Amino acid sequence: MNLTDAWEPPVARAAAGPTDRSDAVRPGSEAQEALPADHTQAILETTKAIGSLLKTSGCPFALVGSVAAYAHGIPVPLQHDTDFALRREDADTVVQLLEQQGVQIVAPAEDWLIKARAGGEDIDLIFALAGRPVTSELLDRAEPLPVDSVHMPVLAPTDMMTSRLAALSEHHCDFGALLPLARGLREKVDWDRVRRQTGDAPMSAAFLYLLELLDVIPVATPHERRDDDDTR
User: Fold this and answer.
1) What kind and span of H or E run contains 126?
2) 83: part of which helix (H) or strand (E)?
3) Which residue, 106, 139, 194, 196, could crosslink 60 as a Cys pair with Cβ 3.0–4.6 Å?
């Protein structure tokens, strides 16, 4: 029995509607509005199944994205997919394992991730976060956390904030989505390191300043604001 046949959570499937919802998660598609406001349980079931498989691969990995935030205790709705970070050199091993278990592999135009699909849900296997390659050091810092009932490595809070801020640009600058994450993780994040690694970018600097005004993080001293190349 392969992975696709093995689990079909009735609650999740009822929430998701039709099994084929590939168009529902594509930005700008007509079907996007049909996506439930909260698709949490269906995505959690997929995350647990794929995470369990990845643990058998022998390759380091970490859960990232919105499901990682959920694992850290941030009450975010899960709507689109589940994301895993892994090293590019491990891609062939991971893809072979997933295909053996009935997971559909999709070759996207981008060269920084592989897309997959199982149990009616989308999965992203990511080699670079905000243009920065996934490294062994990044994955070594991941924290083992329970995702529902399955423990797996989850991107560390400081790395999560760093990657989110590094992804900000003039064309993608949604502070509203970042605020709940920053508030929920603020005591777990090394904000000095976040500033050093992202604070020279205008959008990141603006968001960090907003956090200071909202008393989410302490006001930085001039020394802390200065970029430190040695930490990059």
Assistant:
1) strand 121-126
2) strand 81-86
3) 139
